[in-house]
Amino acid sequence: MATPLHYGALRLPTRWLLSPLAGFTNLPFRRIVRSLGGLGLATTDLVNARALLSGSEKTAELTATCPEDTPLAVQIFGAEPEIMAEAARQLEGRGIASIDINMGCPVNKVTKTGSGASLMCQRDQTLELVERVVKAVQVPVTVKMRLGWDAQNITAPFFAQAFEQVGVAAIAIHGRTRAQGFSGAVDRQGIRQVVEAVSRIPVIGNGDVRTVADAEQMLRETGCAGVSIGRGALANPWIFRQLQQWEETGRFDPPGDFDARLELLRRQFEYVIELRGPERAVPFFRKMAHWYLKAMRVSAALRHRLQTVQTRGEFHEALQEISDRGPAVGSRTDLPDMHIAVPAGPVEHW
Ligand SMILES: Cc1cc2nc3c(=O)[nH]c(=O)nc-3n(C[C@H](O)[C@H](O)[C@H](O)COP(=O)(O)O)c2cc1C
After folding, report:
1. Residue 173 belongs to what domain range?
2. Do residue 123 and residue 22 come from a single domain?
3. Cβ < 6 Å from ligand 1: which residues?
4. Helix crossing, 212-222 with 239-249: angle to 10°?
């Protein structure tokens, strides 16, 4: 049996969660992952609380959802308690199951406004902000953070304990500091200290989980209650189903092969058209197509071709050629593992 996870009164069907990935964890991708099974909860890209309240088109798109897209958390960021609380109220009113506060974003554009990872540098204001959001809604409020600002300021255990006191329902912790960006290894001992700092609420371990074995190691070495997966899900959207199968039977199916991935790519593109219309679908989909084609081991020239198409028709023509040619290495039914790139630059970019 899969072990369910509870965020307060909210029961999540599994303990395998999709981490927010700005630019990727939009409705079309979430629909794809959900259709494959095993997912306990998905979270949106980070959403600017102030922009949400002003009703911006971009935030409407980021928070777009549909009946099968459940349970869903929306991740908000901001530094003003009242704005964050009001954004949470609005989302609760729209039926969102859980609100996640971003305290991990290392990007300067976000931290210089006092939000994202910089919240980990100021105790009183941060606790006040989180408490205001918790008090504003009935739905569970969670926090996603890093271990701290840098190796000299490991504040996550302190905050986890304090957040539990003010009613936060769960903590997700990426086992790196802000200063690390995406470099170095994930510090599972650091995650363990966060697990040990709380008494009741679940802590979700995050960082560099790409396989069932990685997830098993994360659970074993940290004692975390669940695992959230970001880039690993871009490379292998079947990972949640694999984890669920592993938990239930000790075995799991391999991820989809070349043709199964191509079918997912096509379907996700159709979902993007539903969301944005055919004109705006092609540029929007480029980043995601890149991940699919890398995992499908498509040649660099054909990947480049898909990156330069302009229309829906050209998109499908390029896909047809990709389908005809197959992978550049391995075979259609046996694709070698891909290397998962980390975002360039330590902290200025994701
Ligand atoms: C492209 C990209 C975008 C991200 N966007 C967000 C975000 O919007 N909010 C957030 O809390 N974390 C964000 N993250 C961090 C991930 O949620 C996650 O903590 C990190 O990638 C480590 O997990 P992974 O190794 O499973 O990818 C982002 C990471 C990447 C690579």
Report:
1. 5-249
2. yes
3. 19-23, 45-46, 75, 102, 104-105, 144, 174, 206-209, 229-232, 343, 350
4. 70
| Helix ranges, 224-257 (H) | 231-235, 239-249
Q: Which residue has the tokens 């498509």?
A: 298
Ligand 1 centroid to residue 331 C-alpha, Å: 31
The pLDDT tens digits for 197-229 are: 999 999 999 999 999 999 999 999 999 999 999
Q: Closest Cα partner for 29 from 293, 342, 292, 245?
A: 292
> Which atom of ligand 1 lies closest to the CA of 176?
22
Has this prediction a pTM greater than 0.85? yes
Q: Give the pairing type, strands 10-12 and 170-174.
A: unpaired
Q: Are residues 224 and 308 in the same domain?
A: no
pLDDT by residue (tens digit) across 278-327? 999 999 999 999 999 999 999 999 999 999 999 999 999 999 999 999 99
Closest ligand 1 atom to residue 19 Cα is 17
The residue from 231, 249, 267 where one domain ends is 249
Compute the distance from residue 326 Cα to the ligand 1 centre, in Å.
30
On whether both 189 and 244 belong to a single domain, the answer is yes
Q: How many domains does the chain have?
A: 2
